[in-house]
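Fold it.
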Amino acid sequence: MALKLPARAHLCNVVQCEFLTTTMATPAKSEFQAVVMAGGLGSRMFPLTAKRKALLPVGNIPLIAYALDILERAQFSHAIVVARRSAANEILTLVQAVLKLKLQVHMHTVDDDIEYGTADVLRELDDVIKSDFVVLSCDTISNVPLHRIADIHRSRAAGLTCLLAQLPARTTEERHAERKRLKQFEDNKGLTDFIGLEPGTDRVMYRSSEADLVDTEAMRLRRHTLRHHPQIVLRNDLLDAHVYIFARWVLDYLKVKDQISTIRGELVPDLVHKQFSKPKAEEPNDIFNFLPVAPVDATRRLGLSQESVKEFGCYAYVVPSHGITKPHEDPKAYFIARANTTTNYADLNHAVPKHFDTLYPIQGATPMAVDPNAVTDAAQFGPECIIGTGTEVGKSTLKRSIIGCHIKIGDKCKISGCVILDHVTIEDGAVLTNCLISSNATIGAKCSLSNCRVASDYEIKAESKATNEAFDARVFDSASFL
């Protein structure tokens, strides 16, 4: 069945930043509308959150560009972007001047200092969303065609359809090595999902997160569900890509369920659980009362009442995906990842450029390892380095590193396996290995850092030494630290 997504429009101007309201002109009704969630505070991304998460660079390209490119490739003509007020204008400039997308972006801004749940934001968009809608996170990077997910959603008449990635299998030794690597920061803790799927249909039968099972060792399934669906495969090796398609009626249901604040943690598990419950017509807020009524002629042909055909399902599109640090054995595997922790963010900066042939989000441009406005004549750097505009590198050696924009690197520096964000100063003789350096930080002369994370505006004094440390104060001096 062919997908009827919005046709490509001619090049549109980006609208001014404003709240979406019932009075704002909205695009003509399409089969699907799109919402990009870019307003999160990124609490798991410390020490990077001094810069809004949506604008953090991956491969020297702002993170939100990859999410918008997913919609551009799917031929959407309009998208709603939810963003913090402080970041909204910069996102608009990015779309208009840098990405050159045909996609027309409408901004819905939220206050900088208030933590909004993703489901809370959807309620605010009730008057703007008129059809089934796609929701994706700004930290999702994927080359999976959206029409694959939409075909499942339409053919199943689903209430929810989600994208799940089957990552490469890992040996016991690889799992132990990964846990050891993450033990230092533990920013991936609690992110594992337990998902039960029905073989053959990929209907989502069960959904909970590792965090939900902290206080209990039991996973509960209804007997009624098991009688009608006796085969369920429970998996914990799938990555939720945070790409969802919802039926429009879900938003009406969400309006009366004000206790639901988040999409992944609350709305999705609630829908999965409620799809197998018995309709209660006498309860006005029962989920089945929000489903559209089946056409009269269809129910008559089947000899059914309209109420008897009120049902919905939750489904998944499960695809093999390359891992951030390990390729998938399937040569046709997609690339699906999320920059939802500092560990993933650092690894993605090295992984994504390897897939620029299908992921590069800047229209009409070719990826360049070294920006023509960078000064690198005296430097030595390997083929896996990316160096941004305005950066100046002295007589130094760079290997497997992503170097941002307007960075100053002195002489006799050795930088390997690092991700360095914009406006960082690295003085002469510094040695950095597998480090993540946030914007506007200063690394003093002859410093030696290994596997460290340095916060924005952080200063590390000359000749300091550190291994496996995360720094969030203003100044670090290894002499006083020791």
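The radius of gyration is 24 Å.
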